[in-house]
Structure formats: structure tokens, C-alpha cells
Amino acid sequence: MALIDKLLARTAPSGAQKRKTIVRVLLDDAGHVQDVVLKMSCGDAAKDAHALEEVRKMRFARGQLGSGTVRRWHELAYAVD
After folding, report:
1. Backbone dihedral region of 29: left (phi > 0), alpha (psi from -120 to 50 degrees) or beta?
2. In which domain of life is the source organism classified (predicted)?
3. 3-state secondary structure string across 55-81
4. Backbone phi, then psi, for 47, in 5-degree steps?
5. Residue 43 DSSP symbol
6. How far, in Å, CA of 44 to CA of 58, rounded?
């Protein structure tokens, strides 16, 4: 598992309830969010929209794959209250 995938897996706040929104995030090689799409709803449209907005604001570590661009999609779970 790549370092960025490990970091993305830890984005859900600790102690959060089990409900979560699953999103796909497109990151560029600098770790900036390029696009976010909903993959699985938590069942509440307002909470899904909030999760998408929060993920859009996130910044991640620069890619470290060593093969040029690392722009690719990642999936992450965002815990909702």
C-alpha cells in the first residue's frame, strides 16, 4: 500500500460513528485535490455534500512514486456524525 493510501485511510476522525461516506479523490503529484466524487452515500444527502466539501479542502503529502506523475484516484471513507 502506498504512503498516500495509508494517509487517506486515516482521514476519518477517531471516535466517529460508523456511518461514513465513501468518496473518490483525484490528487495531482503535489498532493492537491483535483476532483472529488461520491462513491457511496451515508444515507443523508446533506452529510454527503458536507463530506465532499471537506475533502475538497484537504491537502495531502506530495507523491513519492518516483515515476513522474502520480496523479491518480484514491478512495477514502469520511466519517459523518
Report:
1. alpha
2. Bacteria
3. HHHCECCCCCCCCCCCCEEEEEEEECC
4. -70, -35
5. S
6. 22
- In 2-71, the DSSP E strands lie at 20-27, 33-40
pTM score, whole prediction:
0.68
Q: Are 19 and 80 in contact (CB under 8 A)?
A: yes
Domain range summary for the chain, segments of one domain joined by +: 3-79
pLDDT digits (tens, 9 = 90+) for 49-76: 999 999 999 988 876 555 555 678 889 9
Element spanning 53, H or E = helix 45-57
CA 50 remoteness from chain centre:
13
